[in-house]
Specification:
Strand content of chain B: under 5%
Order of helices and strands of chain A: HEEHHEH
Largest sheet of chain B: none
Number of helices of chain B: 7
Strand order of the largest sheet of chain A: 1-2-3
Strand content of chain A: 15-25%
Distance between the termini of chain B: 28 Å
Radius of gyration of chain A: 14 Å
Distance between the termini of chain A: 31 Å
Number of strands of chain A: 3
Helix content of chain A: 40-55%
Number of helices of chain A: 4
Oligomer: heterodimer
Order of helices and strands of chain B: HHHHHHH
Structural class of chain B: mainly alpha
Helix content of chain B: over 70%
């Protein structure tokens, strides 16, 4: 299962990098499932449903339904939103 | 203070109710947005703690969302409950979009933000959208709508 997840993560990185070339950025976290974050100005002005549609079209082209289950979520954010998220994560986390 | 999964779940329902109250009160949009995010965080912690009691994710909603397993649902189980494939796809897509809405905008440190400060911040963050009336009030409504979708769908899955 771990090998399959690694393979899917590598493919996901490739697929997303092709669809969102630099200066867009792709970040993947493989933890339990695979989480992706795509930073692109293409998401500017798109509401969340449009972003989900765009990302799902890309994923459905490249992965089988079984492979898709390994990908928990891929979020699409604008550069400003990514900067905000990065700033939030850089702070020392508080205890529970 | 330990919080079992059921406590987190019940608190998520309490917090979303409180968030709507704050919105309707008319002077507490910043606190309402923060409380809506806390409702979602409670929901995700409820699902997560049913699987694993440790919380390495802190207030990182994206990681908490993944750890909750909210999207790891058994499609066959939903099918047996009478949902069609199209309905299941719509269910998961709605959750995905609601998570986008919350993730893009919410942060735990909003509990320190004044109304004016959060209004300015969200204007910058959301790209100065054309919004009639109070910008912060409208962003509050959007966050609440997304949080409510998540709470409603999460409640459905909690009881499966």
């Amino acid at each position: 299962m771990a090998a399959l997840k690694s393979k899917i993560a590598r493919t996901l990185k490739t697929v997303l990098s092709e669809e969102f070339p630099p200066p867009d950025r792709i970040r993947l976290i493989v933890e339990g499932g695979i989480i992706g974050m795509v930073t692109s100005s293409r998401f500017q002005g798109l509401d969340s449903l449009d972003r989900v549609d765009l990302i799902q079209k890309i994923l459905n082209k490249s992965f089988t339904p079984l492979e898709r289950q390994q990908i928990q979520i891929v979020v699409g954010v604008t550069p400003d939103e990514a900067t905000f998220y990065g700033a939030v994560q850089a702070r020392r986390p508080s205890k529970n | 203070m330990d919080f079992p999964p059921e406590h987190y779940f019940e608190t998520s329902l309490e917090r979303i109710r409180q968030a709507w109250y704050l919105y309707s009160e008319g002077r507490s949009y910043a606190l309402s947005i923060y409380t809506a995010g806390v409702a979602v965080e409670c929901l995700l912690r409820a699902f997560k703690s049913r699987r694993n009691q440790t919380f390495d994710e802190r207030h990182d909603l994206l990681k908490l969302f993944v750890a909750s397993g909210l999207l790891n649902i058994d499609r066959a189980l939903l099918s047996r409950r009478g949902m069609s494939d199209a309905q299941i796809d719509r269910h998961l897509k709605t959750i995905d979009a609601a998570i986008h809405d919350i993730f893009r905008i919410w942060a735990n440190r909003y509990r320190y933000a004044s109304e004016d400060r959060l209004r300015s911040h969200l204007k910058r963050l959301t790209g100065y959208q054309r919004i009639r009336g109070d910008y912060l009030k409208e962003q509050n409504r959007r966050v609440l709508d997304a949080a409510q979708i998540l709470i409603d769908l999460g409640t459905f899955q909690w009881r499966l």
